[in-house]
Amino acid sequence: MQDIKINISYSITTNTFSTPEPNQSISQQLANTVRKLQEEANNSSKQSDEKMEARIQAKIKSGKKLSSKEETYLKEHNPELYMQYLRIRKMAQCLEERLKHAKSKEEVNDIIFQTFNSISDKDEYKEAIINALNEVVKDFQHSDAFQKLPATNEEALNHKNSNIPNSNNDQNDTDDRIEPSEHDFDPMTWSPLQDVIDAMPTFDMSS
Fold it and tell me: So where are the chain's domains?
């Protein structure tokens, strides 16, 4: 029974059993079996790594975000591509923040044009960058925030100005009181003595 166990080897990749070559010693048979198992395990791991990296590269090229697991794998196995991925995501995040602060659809279009126009034709990852930015643009244009924006910069300005006289809250009242003194202050004519003179009492000479 012991000889039967030793003289049978198992293939991981084919899920089959095989018998050893004739005239081999027990130690040789065992060593060959272990070696084959190691080779097949390494080949299986290599194929898995190749599939993982191919999937990651496809996602980056299409402008998609990687999962945490994929980011960790990429950082360990391809640091150079990982740094490029971080650069692409940073550009996408910057565009997203700029779009969130746009005051009109016209400004949104200007931001998009400026961002895409700044991408160098010589950038090796231009396609991946464009696809990542397109993902940001598409998501923002389908958001409620974009739908609520006025069409033009002029409409946005008119809307802002029309709201100023109608603001009656305490904060706006405070701002109204502060602003005149700020605008009246002239640093070119001010001197330390001016504060002293302003603080002195006044006398009614008519009495």
Answer: 1-57, 62-156
